[in-house]
Amino acid sequence: MGSSSGDVEAGFAKLQGEDFEYYMQTYSIVLGRNSKKSTVDVDLSSLGGGMNISRHHARIFYDFQRRRFALEVLGKNGCFVEGVLHLPNNPPVKLDSQDLLQIGDKEFYFLLPVRSILGGPIGPRHLLNSYPPSSSAAASHQLGLGLHQARGEYYEDDEGNDGGAVKKVRRDDVYGKAALPGQLDKKTEGRLRVDRESDNLQLLQLEEKDVVSSVATVLSDLCGPGDWMPMEKLHAELVEQYSNIWHHSRVRRYLTSEDYPSPEAKGKPWFGLLMLLRKYPEHFVINTRSKGRVTLEFVSLVSLLS
User: Fold this and answer.
1) Full-prediction pTM beyond 0.70?
2) Which are the contacts of 301, defined by CB distance < 8 A and separation ≥ 6?
3) CA separation (Å) from 124 to 78, 129, 141, 277?
4) How many whole angstroms separate alpha carbon 195 and alpha carbon 202?
5) What range(s) does the FHA domain occupy (predicted)?
């Protein structure tokens, strides 16, 4: 898992300090200090962060809606990003690769891979039922990374798979060194931006396909040929089966309407899920019925209606 000890060296992003490195292996981590009541992913107090570290001081997470990493400030003393102080209750701060962060007395860089590390086609063979990944191997499989950890370096096979011929990839080639702003030429910056956008898009597509697979499973288990399920009931089934399994960002995106402020989403915590299913007409049919001012949505699998 990602840790300051560096025993496993694979992740979606990396935190690099003078005396520690941490590889993110989930879509969200909490930085702060450990206590008797709770622990955090990155204990900055044990790394020389000083006395001003809150137990839950900051959260770094992947924002699937905006397709980027961000930092949410939780501690009262705030965090510096590129020298700018951000305080609690402010909107999450976008994080770019090589941003310099400071929490308490501890400074470290946020790093993303400097080139696309996602390999192989997007498809069911890259998806795991467990979410978020519980191990480095699970993380690599789920995102199609095709990365191996051995001897402190990355190994990536030629086809993005676990087997076959492998080629060695240096860690600095994957994450890059914490260069100061302005040291990269425009051509390199443009290439890195394209790579990041490509990786972010594939991450989102993988998540969508996993949710679609879960919905299809529920419908096939509970519906017979020609049956329709109300979206309200489908939402209740997904909450019961997956709310404690899915990452909180996925629950927020598909099982609540928090990310959808539009009037049509009011009172419909399944609104995000409905928008997703409409993107896959080859798998789902949506039937809308109106009762007065109330609009009801029903869904069925195409295979159950054909």
Assistant:
1) no
2) 216, 219, 220, 223, 283, 284, 285
3) 41, 10, 11, 17
4) 11
5) 29-86
